[in-house]
TrEMBL record:
Compartment(s): Membrane
Organism: Runella defluvii
InterPro entries reported for this sequence: SLC26A/SulP_dom (IPR011547), SLC26A/SulP_fam (IPR001902)
Domain of life: Bacteria
Transmembrane helix is among the record's keywords: yes
Membrane topology: Multi-pass membrane protein
Name of the protein in its database record: MFS superfamily sulfate permease-like transporter
Single GO cellular component term: membrane
Keyword annotations: Membrane, Transmembrane, Transmembrane helix
Main location group: membrane
Domain SLC26A/SulP transporter residues, every copy: 9-395
Amino acid sequence: MKGLFKDIKYDLPAGLVVFLVALPLCLGIALASGAPLFSGIITGIVGGLVVSLLSGSALSVSGPAAGLTVIVLNAIQQIGSFEAFLLAVVLAGVIQIVLGVMKAGIIGHYFPSSVIKGMLAAIGLILVFKQIPHAFGYDKDSEGDFSFVQVDGENTFSELLNAINFLHPGAVIISTISLLIIIFWDKPFLKKYAIFRLVPAALVAVIAGVLINSYFEVFSPLLALKNDHLVSLPVSGSVEAFIGHFTFPNFQAISNPQVIITAFTIGIVASLESLLSVEATDKLDPFKRNTPTNQELIAQGAGNVVAGLLGGLPLTAVIVRSSANVNAGGRTKLSAFIHGLFLLISVVAFAGLLNKIPLACLAAVLLVVGYKLAKISLFKSMYKLGWSQFLPFVITVIAILLTDLLKGIGIGMAVSIFFILRNNYKQAYHFNEAGTPDKRQITIQLVEDVTFINKGAITLTLDKLPNDAKVVIDGSKSRFIDIDVLEIIHNFKETALLKGIQLELKGIPEFQGVAGH
């Protein structure tokens, strides 16, 4: 127990910062999903209190995912009721647990580093683009809507123009002061004072935003932020009212085929998004710890079962909250648990107080998180690694910006696989040529592993060999030679005779062709 709390001085303030970031996102994602607002809060609480205990990730934070909003919105409409949809969430969790038991989490180890870094940079840019309107006081689009084409018909860039046209002076003042507080609070020359080390900058910025807006309400009403410009947490006047916010699944809907289809869709998509997020979070972890992916699938599945039973949205590991956790100095999974605890306490006891928080000061917090994820230095370092790393990276960034997380990752993966195939195509063998122009001696030394991917490169090379040359195809150093490649090499014996090539095979296994061919 002592070991659990050994990093409490880091995890407590980090958990508080993640709570402040998660609160509007939980509400915004629920709104964008066409679900009750309280369902987003339930999912955030379950992500903090349940998933963090079962997960093997030190810094990942789970909650409602922006990437699932379209799926959830369409599913609720197609299934016909929110209660029946909750059953699909429960079943999706069961599917994830089964995937974890079957060791399907291994897929998480096959995402290229360039694509993961592109995802982080893209999320950073999206945070900046999406939070600028909130910083300017244009809050028409809900928090948590991270897709390029928004639910209100606008897109990421048109929303920036709208923010300029509908600028709110009070919001600009609050977001600017909050941003300056966050930037200067973390300056090294201030860290020698205990208060700057112990109190998170985001909390100070939020308190300042509330105080400034309270001042505006009294002395300058035109600058004051109200209604949609503030956090909007459901307020429970009593224990009975609080319990009344919960919704329970309709188990009789198990016969509805749309429920089953939705369960599999959520189970697969949520698993992929969680694996991507924990992989990205591990890259941000200053201690470079690795998350056990199969355990993560089981933890996410258990979280979705509980969320569905209590009336929550489907959850995943979420990179926005996880990166905020890293930036705030979180050390262990205790910070994620604390953020869930704060969410629970807030809806039970402090909803009215939290509803005074301007979205403009929370935008300042997320702007800093976004900047740290998409620093110019990251683009420079990826460029120095060469085109095979930079192109998948930058295409992933652009694709995510213009579509959504999973589509962008898919496009980035396709580009990355192209470079992998191209490199394998080139590296099938070592080609050495000696002798005179009249009597050329050529050695083709096969590499350690020769797969069907190398088939094209070897075929072209053999076709271009000059007549009357002496050719040695050496596979003595190869650990594996694919049957397709063996067939090509042995078929080349006939071609060699016709071209007058003196062919010698070293360490090339015999090829037994299919009967009748």
